[in-house]
Amino acid sequence: MRRPPFVLYAGAAIVAALGACALLAPWIAPYPPNAVDSGMAFAPPSATHWAGADGLGRDVFSRIVHGARPSLLSAVGIVAIGLGGGALIGALAALIGGATEQIVMRVTEIVMALPGLVIALALTAALGPSLVNLTLALGVLSIPFYVRLVRGETLTLRERGFVKAARAMGAGPLWLAVRHIAPNLAPVLAVYGTMGLSGAVLAASALSFVGLGAQPPMAEWGALIFDGSQTLLTEWWVAVFPGIAVALSALGFNLLGDGLRDWLDPRGDA
Amino acid sequence: MSTRVVRLAQRAGFSAVVLLSVTAITFAILALSPSDPARLLAGPQATEAAVAQLRVRLGLDQPLWAQYGAYLARVLSGDFGVSVQTGRPVLEEIAARAPATIELMTSALIVAAAIAIPLGVWAARRRGGWPDHVVRAVSVASISMPGFWLGMLLVLLFYRELGWLPANGRFGGVEPGGPTGILLIDTLAAGDAAGFIDALAHLALPVAALAIADIGALARLVRAQTLSVLSADYMRMARASGLSEGEAVRHHAMRNVLTPLVPILALSLAQMLYGSVVIETTFGWPGVGAYVVQAIFALDYPVILGFALIASIAYVAFNLAADIAQSVLDPRIQEAV
Amino acid sequence: MSAPLLQVADLRVAFRSGQSWSHAVDGVSFDIARGEILGCVGESGSGKSATATALLGLLPPRAARVSADALVFDGRDMTRLSEKEWLSLRGREVAFAPQDPMSALNPIMRIGRHMRLIQPRIAPREAHAAAASALQRMGFADPETILRAYPFQLSGGQRQRALLAMALLAKPKLLIADEPTTALDVTVQAQILDLIESTARADGLSVLFITHNLGVAQRLCDRLIVMRTGTIVESGATSEILSAPQHAYTRALLAALPGAAPPRTRLTQRAAP
């Protein structure tokens, strides 16, 4: 196997650091996320409050560290719904074929011709603004993308000897999908899934920023940026530091995805 | 000719199906939403009996499919519902704010293309060299950047620290009226140089924030497309027949690089439709996006869904237009083979 | 007897593969006289195309290295040409006919524009007339239609003839033809070969004709060089090589010909121009 490219290590390091923040937030953050200290309201960054404090005197750094949990969890949820649902539907459609495949692909085509994020926005609003509903909406609307990807790959795999052999021995579509297709698609899905996480972090934080996601007092990055945007010109730190967390995690996932692709498929060049 | 007509007819037919699906989706979302049009219309003081009566009059006691039929009929006649906050028709409210959003989106698309296309071509022509690495780094950074947050950084730098550019709204004073509502065009048409510069200055920061994510994605695509064109046989043939590298790129490569970008640019424009929602909020841009965010906070469902519907129509229209444009630019599609 | 148009002595072409260099052409020497058609025969990977690309000065400078004891074209040392001098040579004195006429034309550009672009210093009207007459010489009865056509509207043979017209537009001294008939069917092949031959005979054009097909080479070429893995294994008059091949590789190539041993009489006719 080739040596993994440098970007893979860089991306993995960033993702690992953010993952550690999410898992170990209470031990890493110097303060509880919602500890109000009115004496410290809008305290600028200092030795005690590294990223300053917000209008209620809550420590911004601690809120960012704790914010890794909902932010990353919703990104993972979006990709899990989209990729999991899309992979299952796409693989089964390709393996069953016939009218089922035709119908699935027509529906996919139609949904992909829609502005997904705008529909997700409306759907979240209708379901009621919350991080869970936002995750559901963004996840469901990303399904068609993965359906198309996985169906295409499955159609290629379907013609390979081992799949044909298994079919000849009477294996059903679900068995084929799980035992033969999934392992062969794992590298491709790992690459697209990782890149999908980057898009999911950005989309979720943007929707949270406009009030559709995490509701106060939950410390979620998009909501933190919205909080800070109210006093941007006077207390810039409240909005700027959470944004770094969003950009850094999107960057980490992108680098990891890029690196994985270069590593697994050195011919690909984009 | 006939293939082209058939192809476009197919595309138009597909667009119609997509639009019909959109109405079904927005209707379903409306049905899912906790809003009760009868209660909204009757007002909070109305009695339960009065609301029930109104519900019958509005057809809300009908089965869902009948309600959908009525909804579809209303949408087709241009009735997208009434804003809960203002009581005015949604279509009117959105139309009033559309020019501001169109101006922002179009400017951002032009800026993104103007930066990304040369970057991508440059990277491809110097493949493996330092420009390639620089462009790759720039594009990864740009697609990882939350645009609304970058917008705030730009405000802090160019408004708060340097004081070079305004950070709020479209215009310094009272917006000059004009036939198009696009300030750059209206001020230019009126010969109002100061107004034009003012409008341009107000555009600068939101456009940068909206364009940033697209620059990276576009530059990558342009680079890949350029690489494949540069290694094409006809490029080798052009060089072998005495064209310099520059001439070969200019005359043979550029159109082959740019033509496939047309549908991609349509997608970018559609992406910006969504991006404008957050960017307009950041910059207090009086467009459709900021209006929708107000509606979200007020849970004004008719406005949110009207926006979703209109955005979808615009999206489908962009894609159809791109298809037509591409069929004009590419002779292989234009004529029967 | 004047000096040959092209003199190649100990030509070497190396391509970078990772850290090392691998030789695609490894010490090749040959001459082409004025008006002569030299066949260069060999399988893919024998170094034919690398030789041709080197003679056009089109090898990528960073990824390929060219060296030669002598590489003299019409009295000029090709190893010392600047890019600007190459530009005045390529297409004007050394022309190229490509292997695959399907992909060698820009799909979204009319033939007329292709031909206009390679005559930048000529007034539009004259350039148009020159292009039309070049097409006519390549057997197009109605050149105006061809000039207005997009490549996809032409057949493979028509495209190759259009490409030949482009190549011969500036009346070059040397035509490098890289398997120009491989992608075409047999009847069209014959037409293209006839066009190349008649132009060579009529205008004193020299041709380096690259092919893997001995049958094609036999029809057209005065002399042959047989290449394998970057070196010349055999060279001489076409008739001699085909009637008494010295090298086992040449015999193998001959045996691979459909219809096996070709009639000798015809070969002798061809060999003496």
Structure description:
The complex is a heterotrimer of chains A (270), B (337) and C (273). Chain A has 270 residues and is mainly alpha-helical. Chain A has 9 helices and no strands. Chain A starts with 5 loop residues before the first helix and ends in a 6-residue tail after the last helix. Chain B is mainly α and 337 residues long. Chains A and B meet through helix 3, helix 4, helix 7 and helix 9 of A and helix 1, helix 6, helix 7, helix 9 and helix 12 of B.
Class based on secondary structure composition and strand pairing of chain C: alpha/beta
Tell the overall outline of chain B.
globular
Strand order of the largest sheet of chain C: 7-8-9-3-10-11
Which structural class do you get from the secondary structure elements of chain B? mainly alpha
- How far apart lie the N and C ends of chain B? 9 Å
Strand residues, percent of chain B = under 5%
**Shape by Cα distribution of chain C:** globular
Give the biggest sheet of chain C.
6 strands, mixed
Determine the oligomeric state from the structure: heterotrimer
Distance between the termini of chain C: 16 Å
DSSP E strands of chain B, number: 0
The percentage helix of chain C is 25-40%
What is the overall number of helices of chain C? 11
Q: What Rg of chain C is obtained from the alpha carbons, in whole angstroms?
A: 19 Å
How many beta-strand runs of chain C? 11
Sheet with most strands of chain B: none
Helix content of chain B: over 70%
Give the helix/strand layout:
The complex is a heterotrimer of chains A (270), B (337) and C (273).
Chain A: H1 6-28, H2 60-96, H3 98-112, H4 116-127, H5 131-158, H6 161-168, H7 173-209, H8 221-229, H9 237-264
Helix pairs in contact in A: 1-2, 1-9, 2-3, 2-5, 2-7, 2-9, 3-5, 4-5, 5-7, 7-8, 7-9, 8-9
Chain B: H1 2-32, H2 37-42, H3 48-57, H4 64-76, H5 90-125, H6 130-143, H7 147-161, H8 183-189, H9 193-230, H10 233-240, H11 245-258, H12 261-283, H13 288-297, H14 301-329, H15 331-334
Chain C: E1 6-17, E2 20-32, E3 37-41, H1 48-55, E4 64-67, E5 70-73, E6 76-77, H2 83-89, E7 94-97, H3 111-117, H4 124-137, H5 143-148, H6 156-168, E8 174-178, H7 186-203, E9 206-211, H8 214-220, E10 223-228, E11 231-237, H9 238-243, H10 248-255, H11 264-271
Parallel strand pairs in C: 3-9, 3-10, 7-8, 8-9
Antiparallel strand pairs in C: 1-2, 1-4, 1-5, 5-6, 10-11
Helix pairs in contact in C: 4-6, 6-7
